[in-house]
Amino acid sequence: MRTARSSGLAALTLVAAALGAPAGADRDIAAEDFGCLLEMTPVRGFYVSNLHGDLAATLKVAHSETGGVWPPGSVVQLLPNEAMVKRAEGHNPATRDWEFFELDASAEGTSIRARGFADVNNRFGGNCFACHVQANPGRDLICEQGHGCDPIPLTAEMARALQKTDPRCSNAPELTAEEADALAALQAALD
Ligand code: HEC
User: What is the whole-number distance in angstroms between the Cα of residue 76 and the centre of ligand 1?
Assistant: First the structure.
C-alpha cells in the first residue's frame, strides 16, 4: 500500500526531475543552452557561464592566476560558434570531461553542427581537442595566449568583432573602427 509519505517522496522526485539535475550532477546539453555571448560573463577576452547555476565556482578558476580544474557545468566561449562545456567528473577522462561544440548562431537562435569529445573539428578541419590538449598542465585545456597551444588565425580585435556581432544578441554594441576593419579583413580572408 502506498503511504502518504511514499507518495509525497515520489512527488518530490518528480518535482526535482522537472527542475533539472541538482548542482554538481550531469545533465544533457541542448542547443537552447547557448545564447547571446555578450550576456555571459566576460573574463579577459572570453566569456563564461555555468549551466548548474554555480557561476561563482567557474569564476574562481577563470580568475585564478595558476589555473585549476574547471567545475562541472562551466561553459567557455571565445567565439559565438564554438564552445567548451565541462561535463561531470569522470564523464570523459580523455578530454578531462570537456565536451566540444561547433555551433551555428543566427538571429533565430543556436543549432549544434557537431559535438563530442576527442573527435570534433572546427569548420576549417582543425581538431578542437588536438589543439586544446597542448595547454600547459594545470590549465585544464584552456589555451588563451601563451599557454602552449597552436595559435588560431584571429587577432584579439577579430575575436572581439565576432563577439560583438553575435546575431543572437539584441542591443549589440557598435564596432570600433579597428574592429570593423578587423571584421572586413577576416571576411576577405574567408572569401
Ligand atoms: C589551431 C588550434 C585550435 C583549434 C583547432 C581550436 N582551438 Fe580553441 N583556441 C585555440 C587557442 C590558441 C585559443 C586562445 C585564443 C586567444 O585567446 O586568442 C582558443 C580559444 C578557445 C576557447 C576560449 C578558451 C581558451 O581555451 O582560451 C574556446 C572555448 C575554444 N577555443 C573552443 C574550441 C572549440 C570548441 C574548437 C573546435 C570546434 C576549437 N576551440 C578549436 C586553439 C584552437
Answer: 10
pLDDT tens column, 113-139 = 999 999 999 988 999 999 999 999 999
User: Which pLDDT belongs to residue 191?
Assistant: 82
Q: How many CB atoms lie within 10 A of CB 154?
A: 16
Ligand 1 lining (C-beta closer than 6 Å): 45-46, 76-78, 82-84, 100-102, 120, 122, 126-128, 131-132, 142-145, 149-152
pLDDT at 110: 98
Q: Which of 110, 119, 123, 128 to mutate to test the pocket of ligand 1 (most atoms within 8 A of CB)?
A: 128
Model pTM greater than 0.85? yes
**Smallest CA separation from ligand 1 atom 16, residue:** 144
Q: Which residues of 120-136 are buried (b: 16+ CB within 10 A; e: fewer)?
A: bbbeeeeebbebbbebe
The residues spanned by each domain of the chain are: 23-150
- Burial (Cβ within 10 Å: 0-12, 13-18, ≥19) of residue 104: middle
Residue 2: the pLDDT is 47
